[in-house]
Design goal:
Layout lengths: L1 H30 L5 E4 L9 H6 L5 E2 L8 E5 L2 E6 L2 H8 L64 H13 L13 H10 L7 E2 H18 L12 H19 L12 H23 L5 H12 L5 H31 L8 H11 L5 E5 L4 E6 L2 E5 L4 E5 H5 L42 H18 E4 L7 E3 L3 E3 L3 E6 H5 L1
Parallel strand pairs: 1-3, 4-9
Antiparallel strand pairs: 1-2, 3-4, 5-13, 6-9, 7-8, 10-13, 11-12
Helix pairs in contact: 4-9, 5-6, 5-13, 6-10, 7-8, 8-10, 10-11, 10-13
Length: 494
């Protein structure tokens, strides 16, 4: 009884003391960094007297913050570095050359024979910054940190997984080695042949279904036919859309330290994965060996240690999500911008590039600093940031920084064609990231968006007033809806 009472009496000290110590630890780590700092005080620290917090050095602000300049923050016991400049983004994302793509070999895999370093450098590492993705993307190339020192073969590493994806899925997308490996352009054309949206319509879910169909045909060599054993496709796509919000919600919650199954967001992700996983399992079980995804599966089973079924489920889950979410999101934003333009013919490449600049689907990426890093804080000074800080590179802010673009908040496709003076820094364009962990499927994503958007813009006059600023934010950003009218151009001309 006395021990129970003693535990109860110590509980308030634990509830107050643990957050205080964790926050002080982060604050002390950032104290020597000569940058503006913001301290987010979680409950119950936010209830402490302001004077006491100032005595502890926990002022909510230190220095004047500018969203287009480097700054630091303590957020739910995590030290963060906000990176909104191109120079600092390059220093974080590509401080060293990415690992070379391994060449061919006579063995079952062309992976490097020597074991990789157990720790990737900053820029190639993701680490704890992506722990909240574990229940969704697992050990896929998107989140895989690197090979474990205990791994018996180099094939378990991020380098090897990336190489296998490039070799079997992403390299030479418009080449056709067999009827089961249609060129990407053919997969897009086949899917567009049956794309006949009603008017008016919300194009976001229609784009999601279309890009899923393109990806399925490209990966498996056959059109998707809804099996009775799977949840309806619309249910699956809605589950993916919701998961992307929940993963970010969980990472921003004070409960992020708890196992996912103990948090409301984590439990909901678990329920939604019961909808998403069967689709990945269906691909694994039915993919023809000669298809792109089939050859990838066979190569992974031959070159990686142990039972790789769990990893393959993670990778296919990630592939299906990424092919739908990013392409459908970019198409949706491009259509929102199109509806606001005059009915004149559209330069598809310039329109898509300006869409990726002003409304990137991935607004930020996060990388843990695994070693101290000196970053340009101003033209005349640098700031040394210690290891252990999580660097959040704001792609959206780089793209809208007035130092890099004139009239940065305006949608002006002509900046990429007839008005090059509106682009002050051509290198400040990072919609797919930068460095060795930039989007591995960026070339395919670009082609899908360009050809599908070209089809819609060429066939229809798009009307309505969808607001590209009305969005839902997860670890990617999508417009809430794309409610438009579609009038065939042939009817308008007549």
């Amino acid at each position: 009884m006395l021990s129970f009472l003693g535990l109860l009496s110590g509980l308030p000290l634990l509830v107050l003391g643990a957050p205080l110590l964790l926050t002080l630890r982060c604050h002390l780590l950032l104290l020597a960094v000569p940058l503006p700092t913001r301290v987010h005080l979680p409950w119950p620290l936010s209830r402490l007297p302001r004077r006491l917090l100032e005595l502890l050095g926990l002022r909510s602000e230190r220095g004047k913050r500018d969203k287009f300049q480097l700054s630091t923050a303590t957020y739910y016991f995590r030290p963060l570095l906000h990176v909104p400049t191109l120079e600092a983004a390059r220093a974080v994302l590509s401080p060293a050359k990415p690992p070379p793509s391994p060449g061919p070999s006579s063995g079952p895999s062309s992976a490097p024979s020597s074991a990789p370093s157990p720790t990737l450098p900053t820029g190639l590492q993701k680490g704890s910054a992506y722990d909240n993705f574990a229940s969704f993307t697992g050990s896929s190339v998107f989140t895989c940190p690197d090979s474990s020192p205990a791994s018996p073969r180099a094939g378990d590493s991020w380098r090897h997984k990336r190489h296998e994806l490039l070799k079997h899925v992403f390299r030479s997308p418009n080449a056709s080695a067999s009827p089961l490996q249609p060129p990407l352009s053919a997969a897009i054309a086949t899917s567009l042949a049956s794309f006949d949206p009603p008017s008016p319509a919300d194009l976001l879910p229609l784009y999601q279904a279309l890009t899923f169909g393109i990806s399925f045909l490209y990966l498996l060599g056959r059109p998707f036919a809804q099996p009775a054993s799977l949840p309806p496709l619309r249910t699956y796509l809605c589950a993916l859309t919701r998961i992307r919000v929940l993963v970010l919600e969980q990472s921003r919650s004070p409960l992020f330290l708890l196992p996912a199954r103990l948090t409301p967001a984590g439990r909901e992700i678990g329920r939604l994965m019961e909808v998403a996983r069967p689709y990945a399992r269906h691909v694994l079980e039915t993919a023809p060996a000669a298809s792109r995804i089939g050859s990838f599966i066979l190569s992974c089973r031959a070159s990686m240690s142990g039972d790789v079924t769990a990893y393959l489920l993670d990778e296919v889950t990630t592939l299906l999500f990424a092919s739908v979410d990013t392409s459908a999101g970019t198409l949706s934003f491009a259509t929102c911008h199109l509806a606001a333009l005059p009915r004149a013919p559209v330069d598809v490449d310039a329109h898509v590039k300006e869409t990726l600049r002003l409304t990137p689907v991935a607004e930020f990426v996060v990388r843990p600093l695994v070693e101290p890093l000196s970053l340009p804080a101003s033209p005349a000074a640098a700031a040394r940031v210690p290891a252990g800080v999580q660097a959040c590179v704001w792609i959206k802010l780089v793209h809208t920084n007035p130092a890099y673009y004139a009239r940065p908040q305006e949608f002006l496709p002509e900046r990429w064609t007839t008005r090059p003076e509106l682009v002050l820094e051509p290198g400040a364009f990072l919609p797919f990231g930068l460095g060795g962990r930039a989007c591995v499927g960026s070339a395919i994503g670009r082609q899908v968006v360009r050809e599908v958007f070209g089809h819609v813009a060429g066939k229809y006059v798009v009307g309505g007033r969808p607001d590209y600023r009305d969005v839902t934010r997860g670890f990617t950003t999508l417009p809430r809806s794309v409610r438009v009218t579609l009038t065939p151009r042939a009817a308008v001309a007549a």
